[in-house]
Design a protein that fits this description.
Length: 241
């Protein structure tokens, strides 16, 4: 009965993997299959900044012209630091009539009847992020969106996570083998998949809202680069003796 138990358990554990890889499961070819998820982290070396700028005008044309002038000032300042133009993506450009409460319509400034906005996604190194953000705000940016921290070599990060996951899988399989009164053998099959990305609460939105209008009293926003984490799920099948 002691010899029969490991075989029965292994048939249950590797049935799907055995079918995929045609691994024969029998009394003479006993295996253990495990599935684990592990992760690895690295310091971010790249930042994607989301910035926007609002402008106003008495007419649609005025608002548009003011928006173009503000955008040119912001982008010229950023590219002057060496940020390539191909690292700047326009996310939206629009002009709308400002919706005013009827009670305030009579006193609403005529020069702010229409608003125009432009938004950009700017990719820079993590070291450049703070300076680019400060420069954009100094030259007319009025909104700050989420900062997406990344690593250039994401394959290396995934490989590191996979290495951790395989070691974890072997440790789990070894404990299972001990419980079955057997010794863990070689890895006979392995595969990995990345878990689906978690939803970000700030995705697509702006964190700070409109922050213009403070003039010289505007406080400085400090960025804190975060670590980038990659998770990997490993399916591993080991032989047991």
């Amino acid at each position: 009965m002691k010899l029969f138990l490991p075989t029965a358990v292994c048939i249950l554990l590797v049935s799907q993997s055995a079918l995929a890889q045609k691994i024969e499961v029998s009394r003479s070819n006993k295996t253990i299959a495990v599935t684990v998820t592990d992760s690895a982290s690295m310091e971010a070396d790249t930042a994607i900044l989301e910035l926007a700028a609002y402008s106003y005008g008495a007419s649609e044309d005025d608002a548009f012209v003011n928006s173009v002038a503000r955008a040119n000032k912001i982008l010229d300042a950023i590219t002057a630091t060496g940020v390539p133009k191909q690292n700047i993506e326009t996310k939206y450009v629009d002009v709308t009539e400002v919706q005013v409460d009827p009670k305030e319509r009579a006193t609403w400034p005529k020069e702010k009847r229409f608003s125009a906005r432009q938004g950009w996604s700017i990719t820079v190194s993590a070291e450049q992020a703070q300076g680019v953000l400060d420069l954009a705000m100094q030259n007319g940016a009025t909104q700050i969106g989420k900062v997406d921290w990344r690593v250039k070599n994401d394959l290396a990060l995934e490989a590191k996570a996979r290495e951790f996951a395989l070691a974890h899988a072997r440790a789990v399989a070894s404990e299972m083998a001990k419980g079955l009164g057997a010794n863990l053998g070689e890895l006979v099959y392995g595969s990995n998949t990345a878990p689906p990305p978690e939803e970000e609460g700030t995705s697509g939105g702006f964190l700070g809202g409109v922050i213009g209008g403070l003039g010289g009293q505007r406080p400085k926003l400090k960025l804190f680069p975060e670590k980038v984490t990659e998770s990997v799920t490993v399916h591993a099948v080991f032989s047991i003796n």
